[in-house]
Amino acid sequence: MSMINKIQSDFLVASPSFASGAGRLLDWYGLYDLYNVSANGQQADATAMFADWRLVGEDMNDAMLEFESSQR
Fold first, then answer.
1. Are 6 and 71 in contact (CB under 8 A)?
2. Residue ranges per structural domain of the chain
3. Which long-range contacts (CB under 8 A, 24 or more apart) does 38-43 make?
4. Distance from C-alpha of 30 to C-alpha of 60, rounded to nearest angstrom
5. Across residues 63-72, what is the average pLDDT?
6. Measured at the alpha carbon of residue 37, what is the angle toward residues 40 and 15, in degrees to the nearest 5?
7. pTM recorded for the entire structure
8. DSSP, residue by residue, the chain
9. Confidence (pLDDT) at 12
10. Tens digit of pLDDT for each residue in 14-59?
11. Using CA atoms, how far apart are residues 63 and 11, in angstroms rounded to an integer?
12. What pLDDT is attached to residue 68?
């Protein structure tokens, strides 16, 4: 299966790390909060739906390839 080139469908949420968590301790006014944004809600929905369906297609392709290889 090809797990390396998978598309992420969580691009609309923040991706926290240890360093960003530590930085938030000093960010009392919420200035550090930065999320992935879109021009409007419809664009965000369309982009998320495209990414979700693309992942579904990749999963189906992986399943078909695995099935084909098991039939040989």
1. no
2. 18-70
3. 38/12
4. 41
5. 93
6. 150
7. 0.56
8. ---TTPPPS-TTS----HHHHHHHTT-TTSTT------SSHHHHHHHHHHHHHHHHHHHHHHHHHHHHHHT-
9. 63
10. 677 888 778 878 888 777 766 667 888 899 889 889 888 998 999 9
11. 25
12. 94
Radius of gyration over every alpha carbon of the chain, rounded to an integer in angstroms: 18
The per-residue pLDDT for 35 is 67
Query: Which token pair is 3?
Result: 């797990």
- How long, in residues, is the chain? 72
Task: With beta carbons less than 8 A apart as the criterion, state whether 33 and 14 touch.
Answer: yes
> What tokens does 62 get?
């992986």
- Between the CA of residue 43 and those of 6, 12, 26, 50, 53, what are the distances in Å? 21, 11, 33, 10, 15
